[in-house]
Amino acid sequence: MQDYQTLQAELAGHNPQLLERPALIAANKMDLPQAEENRPRLEEAFGERLLFISAVTGQGVEELIERVYKVLQEAPPPQAGQVPEETVITRFADEAPFHIDVEDGVYVVKGNRIEKLLTMTNFSTDEGLQRFQRTVTRMGLEDALKAQGIKEGDTVRIKDMEFDFSE
User: Fold this and answer.
1) What is the mean pLDDT of residues 29-34?
2) Residue 81 pLDDT greater than 90, yes or no
3) Span 78-85, mean pLDDT?
4) CATH of the domain at 154
């Protein structure tokens, strides 16, 4: 809630007319077990404008994109001064969360999403390790490694982290 209030204050300071524009609220990190605790409070505060997503797993992201599109289609045109003169719209292509190369018997996993997940994970806690495991399972990493022929004890590398594969 404090983040939302800070954002609203920043928008008002920049251009108060922006607060009159339609808005959606995306609650991220819904893949975390404790995220469900906040759901009722957020639903009460934001109602229909609220969407639950996980940027790491992709859960809810497609719905968010569809809702943003719908809101933009239904929104009144912005007034002068609300939008910069030159507007650039970028649509990012869907990309696989990872790809696997086998280099000298090591299964090297690369990709923006999996590398970002690795960077954002605190492996010194059980919770961080469990979250990482749940997320890579949802991404399909274990199945993809098996499809590549990995066996128990083979080495897997993601960025600078190496581990032995085990089921």
Assistant:
1) 85
2) no
3) 60
4) 3.30.300.350
**pLDDT of res. 86:** 59
For the chain, the residue count is 167
Q: Which domain holds residue 106?
A: 99-164
Number of separate domains in the chain: 2
Question: Is 86 inside any structural domain?
Answer: no
Closest by alpha carbon to 139, among 91, 100, 92? 100
Is 110 in the same domain as 62?
Answer: no
Residue type, 161: M
Closest CA to 55 of 33, 29, 24: 29
Task: Count Cβ atoms within 10 A of the Cβ of residue 141 and give its class: 0-12 exposed, 13-18 middle, 19 or more buried.
Answer: buried
113, containing H or E segment: helix 112-120
- Determine what percent of the chain is predicted with pLDDT higher than 90: 35
